[in-house]
């Protein structure tokens, strides 16, 4: 997204990009995210880290978002974008199409008192809640086997 002319400039101005392949840059991004949270500004993190190019509800989650939530004692507020795949497929930025874009805000998940030893438990909890709701709300990319 950051490489798209004009849009990339706007995107980089509003987003904290995480370069997973470079430990120093990744650590700097995490510090920036924590700094934003400490100013009581909400952030959005995609725990899958990329487009889901499968027909499963979700890809595996990375630990980063959950570590940050625990370290800053910030509750997690999952949001589902049910029609994202229909609006912009992963093949190209030029695949954007008009149409409905349903979003569902799920119940907040508290992290009070959790420690870094709880990251896996928290990650699994959030994953299962989101997966269940994506199936319930019939997210468009999920291949159904019940037909």
Report the end-to-end length measured between terminal Cα atoms. 36 Å
Portion of residues within helices: 25-40%
Count of individual beta strands:
2
Q: What is the mean pLDDT? A: 85
Instruction: Give the SSE order as H and E letters.
Output: HHHEHEH
> Which residues sit in consecutive blocks of at least 5 with pLDDT less than 50?
none
- The percentage of residues in β strands lies in under 5%
Sheet/helix structural class: mainly alpha
User: What does the radius of gyration come to?
Assistant: 16 Å
Largest sheet: 2 strands, antiparallel
What global shape is seen?
globular
Number of helices: 5
Total number of domains: 2
Spatial order of the strands in the main sheet? 1-2
Model description:
It contains 5 helices and 2 strands, in the order αααβαβα. It has 147 residues and is mainly α. It has 2 domains: 1-43, no CATH class; 47-147, no CATH class. The chain has a two-stranded antiparallel sheet with strand order 1-2. The longest helix is centred in the C-terminal third of the chain and has 18 residues, at 119-136. The protein is globular, with a radius of gyration of 16 Å. 9% of the residues are buried.
Structure at a glance:
With 147 residues, this protein is mainly alpha-helical. It has helices at residues 7-14, 23-38, 64-72, 84-87, 119-136; strands at residues 79-81, 103-105.
Structural features:
147 residues, 4% strand, single chain, mainly alpha, 2 domains
Question: How is the topology of this model organized?
Answer:
Elements: H1 7-14, H2 23-38, H3 64-72, E1 79-81, H4 84-87, E2 103-105, H5 119-136
Antiparallel strand pairs: 1-2
């Amino acid at each position: 997204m950051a490489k798209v002319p004009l849009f990339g400039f706007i995107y980089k101005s509003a987003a904290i990009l995480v370069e997973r392949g470079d430990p120093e840059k990744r650590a700097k991004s995490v510090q920036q995210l924590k700094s934003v949270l400490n100013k009581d500004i909400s952030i959005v993190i995609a725990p899958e880290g990329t487009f889901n190019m499968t027909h499963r509800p979700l890809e595996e989650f990375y630990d980063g978002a959950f570590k940050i939530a625990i370290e800053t004692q910030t509750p997690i507020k999952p949001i589902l974008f049910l029609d994202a795949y229909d609006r912009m497929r992963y093949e190209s930025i030029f695949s954007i199409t008009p149409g409905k874009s349903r979003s569902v805000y799920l119940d907040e998940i508290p992290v009070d008192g959790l420690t870094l030893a709880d990251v896996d438990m928290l990650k699994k909890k959030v994953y299962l809640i989101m997966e269940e709701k994506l199936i319930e709300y019939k997210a468009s990319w999920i291949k159904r086997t019940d037909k």
